[in-house]
TrEMBL record:
It comes from the Bacteria. This is Ferredoxin. Ferredoxins are iron-sulfur proteins that transfer electrons in a wide variety of metabolic reactions. PROSITE patterns: 4FE4S_FER_1 (PS00198), 4FE4S_FER_2 (PS51379). Transmembrane segments: none annotated. It comes from Halomonas halmophila.
Amino acid sequence: TFVVTENCIKCKYTDCVEVCPVDCFYEGPNFLVIQPDECIDCALCEPECPAEAIYSEDELPEGQEQFIEINAELSETWPNITEKQDPPEDAEQWDGQPGKLEHLER
Ligand code: SF4
Ligand code: F3S
C-alpha cells in the first residue's frame, strides 16, 4: 500500500486524489491520508505529489514509519476526497519544513 507522509501536512496540494483509480484518499483539515485496504498499489499518485510526500510502505524514509498507522487510523473517520482543491496559501512556505507532525490537525 502507499502512504501519505509528513511533508503533506500544511501543504495539501491534492494533485494526488485526481489520479487514484479507486478513490481511496481521505481528507482532514491540513493533511490527506490513504485508506490502506482500498489502495491497489498502482503507484500513480506517487509522482503527482509536488511535495513528494507519498511513498510505498516498503520504501518509507527513515522516521516516517509512524505514518502507516496514521493513514490507517485517520482514513476511518475522515471524508473521501476525489477532486483537486486549491492548496493553503502558505503551502509553499511549509514544503520541506521539518517537524510538521506537531501541526497535524485531526
Ligand atoms: Fe490510489 Fe494507486 Fe495511490 Fe493507492 S497507489 S492511493 S490506488 S493512486
Ligand atoms: Fe498531500 Fe501531496 Fe496529495 S501534498 S494532498 S500528498 S499531492
